[in-house]
Amino acid sequence: MGMLFVGLGGFLGACSRFLLTRACGRMAPAFPLGTLLSNVIAGLLIGLILGLERQSLRLPANVKLFLTTGLLGGLSTFSTFSLETVLLLEQGQYRLAGGNLLLNVGLSICQEGFNAGAGGHRIRRRGGRVIW
Q1: Cβ(31)–Cβ(84) under 8 Å?
Q2: CA-CA distances (angstroms) from residue 79 to 47, 95, 104, 116?
Q3: What pTM does this model have?
Q4: Which residues of the chain have pLDDT under 50?
Q5: Across-strand partners of 131?
Q6: For 88, how many CA atoms within 13 A lie in the half-sphere containing its CB?
Q7: What does the pLDDT read at residue 18?
Q8: Residue 129: its pLDDT value, please?
């Protein structure tokens, strides 16, 4: 049953990445902005899920699989990011390649760390509901 949740989440995450990359490609054709945003958003959300769990909100196993391994795994794009960085290097776009590397890795790590730590402290329960 878990594989079904992972597959559905992966489908939705990959479709979301496709749409985001397509939209960003129109705005910034020289820089892989869609991949950067996909990685940062996935890092933010997976950190938030970790923060929620640290605040003793337990997600059902299938929901966690759907969100983390499926949706966010499909949304994050490490292999695409690697390919785009290599292509920028091959084109002699060393500054863009370096910026792409630093931004994808740095912002993703910051998002996960922030939301797993400090972000989790902003969440409280009132009347059984999770609020911000």
Answers
A1: no
A2: 20, 20, 12, 24
A3: 0.71
A4: 131-132
A5: 124
A6: 20
A7: 96
A8: 54
Give the Cα separation of 2 and 5 in Å (integer).
5
The pLDDT of residue 126 is 53
Which pair of structure tokens corresponds to residue 120?
A: 């989790």
Q: What is the residue whose two structure tokens read 């863009």?
A: 96
Nearest to 21 by CA among 38, 9, 45, 8: 38
Task: Quote the longest CA-to-CA distance of the chain.
Answer: 57
Placement of tokens 């759907």 in the chain: 66
* pLDDT value at residue 10: 96
125 forms beta bridges with 130
Determine the pLDDT at residue 102. 95
Say if residues 24 and 39 touch (Cβ distance below 8 Å).
Answer: no
Give the pLDDT of residue 98: 97
> Residue 101 is inside which H or E element, if any?
helix 94-116
